[in-house]
């Protein structure tokens, strides 16, 4: 893509009119939001490659169907990193596919977060892990929960990454749980987003996994076979295709939050993405507790004429945090943002689309855990087609949402609920 050359000097001709024309064109290109975000993230050490395909997987069924097909065709290695593997039917199905590949000699490694496991309502116990290991699958727990537990709630591994043969990778917001397909009694249907990446950014995701594997297992894994080289995964057939004209040529960068090293990268991306916007911002995020700087950025965007649309869920899987999100949504509504409240189920999706030119899919929520504490990872996709696909998803979800107005706010939220939201926003640095 031409974006990679946006910031290189332009060779001008001697003619004044040509020089003026080129200078004006260069200025227009350099002020585009997608060019700006690439420049800013490169300044923070983020690498962008230009030979990627990105395939959006917009439901749990679509994600697991695609993932299982890819696993079944693996030849060398399967690496999985999840916040939690819920001990349910989809996890059993995953283990069955992994065990079959392990029996064939494929290296299978999995890591999960101790807090993520302990905090879900169907955690894996020691007997379950023993049974999985007996099937030839290496699985390790990152930071097991230990008394007095307080230190264990911070700096968790909230990422969701799968890398197959070093050639195909999956990332997004979904853990391993059957409620992504079946929903739950509490919230009904459960909506989330994942994507499959093929291209050089698979190597970046593999690096992230192998570092986490070392932290969890103590094993150092090296070798060219774990990385994408000149060959693609052409032998993996039947997966959902990338139908964009830009397939195989998409610019993608991975922003990876590590405590102490890249601790501000997720905040930096979101803040600059909002500040760079010239035309439109669309956001779906489940835990909308926000920081002061992000709220200020949304307000400034509206003042300079950017159309800001935010979609949140009426229902949630946890208490108090959504109250804070509702409070922030109401405040931003009064400042000119358009707020959509999704009703049929719970939207656990974490995406932002800016100016129809770039977007992100990943694990990071807009709460303090993701922005200040946990290990997170998002794919930043500089591609109009992929962004358009997400914009279409956003617009489709609006049909099942109500638009927040002051009158609707008063009818929807009782005085006690409005007070609870105000109180929750005081606790937002810890939610």
From TrEMBL:
Family annotation (PROSITE patterns): PLD
Ranges for domain PLD phosphodiesterase: 153-180, 343-370
Parts forming coiled coils: none
Top-level lineage group: Bacteria
Pfam families assigned to the protein according to its UniProt record, in alphabetical order: PLDc_2
SUPFAM superfamilies (UniProt xref): Phospholipase D/nuclease
Alphabetical list of InterPro entries matching this protein: PLD-like_dom, PLipase_D/transphosphatidylase
Protein name as catalogued: Cardiolipin synthase
Organism, as annotated: Prevotella fusca JCM 17724
């Amino acid at each position: 893509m031409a974006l990679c050359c946006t910031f290189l000097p332009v060779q001008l001709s001697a003619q004044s009119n040509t020089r003026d024309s080129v200078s004006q064109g260069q200025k227009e290109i350099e002020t585009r939001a997608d060019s700006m975000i690439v420049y800013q993230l490169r300044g923070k050490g983020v690498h962008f490659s230009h030979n990627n395909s990105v395939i959006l997987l917009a439901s749990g069924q679509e994600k697991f169907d695609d993932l299982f097909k890819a696993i079944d065709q693996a030849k060398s290695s399967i690496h999985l990193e999840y916040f939690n593997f819920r001990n349910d039917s989809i996890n059993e199905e995953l283990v069955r596919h992994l065990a079959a590949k392990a029996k064939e000699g494929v290296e299978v490694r999995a890591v999960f977060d101790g807090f993520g496991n302990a905090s879900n309502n169907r955690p894996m116990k020691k007997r379950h892990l023993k049974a999985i290991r007996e099937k030839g699958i290496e699985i390790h727990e990152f930071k097991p929960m230990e008394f007095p537990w307080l230190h264990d709630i911070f700096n968790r591994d909230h990422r969701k990454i799968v890398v197959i043969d070093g050639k195909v990778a999956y990332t997004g917001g979904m853990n391993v749980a059957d409620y992504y397909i079946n929903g739950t009694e509490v919230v009904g249907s459960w909506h989330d987003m994942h994507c499959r990446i093929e291209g050089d950014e698979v190597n970046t995701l593999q690096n992230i996994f192998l570092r986490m594997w070392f932290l969890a297992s103590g094993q150092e894994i090296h070798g060219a076979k774990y990385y994408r080289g000149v060959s693609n995964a052409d032998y993996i057939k039947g997966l959902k295709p990338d139908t964009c004209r830009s397939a195989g040529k998409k610019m993608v960068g991975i922003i990876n939050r590590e405590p102490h090293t890249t601790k501000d990268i997720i905040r930096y991306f979101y803040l600059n993405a909002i500040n760079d916007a010239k035309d439109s911002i669309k956001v779906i995020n489940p835990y909308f507790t926000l920081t002061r700087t992000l709220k200020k950025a949304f307000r400034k965007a509206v003042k300079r004429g950017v159309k800001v649309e935010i979609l949140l869920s009426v229902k949630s899987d946890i208490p108090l945090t959504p109250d804070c999100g509702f409070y922030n949504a109401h405040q931003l509504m009064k400042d000119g943002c358009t707020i959509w409240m999704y009703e049929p189920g719970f939207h656990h999706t974490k995406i932002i689309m800016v100016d129809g030119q770039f977007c992100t899919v990943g694990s990071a929520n807009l709460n303090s855990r993701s922005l200040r504490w946990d290990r997170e990872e998002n794919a930043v996709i500089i591609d109009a087609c992929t962004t358009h696909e997400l914009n279409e998803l956003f617009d489709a979800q609006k049909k099942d949402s109500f638009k927040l107005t002051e009158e609707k706010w008063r009818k929807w939220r009782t005085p006690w609920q409005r007070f609870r939201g105000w109180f929750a926003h005081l606790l937002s640095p810890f939610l």
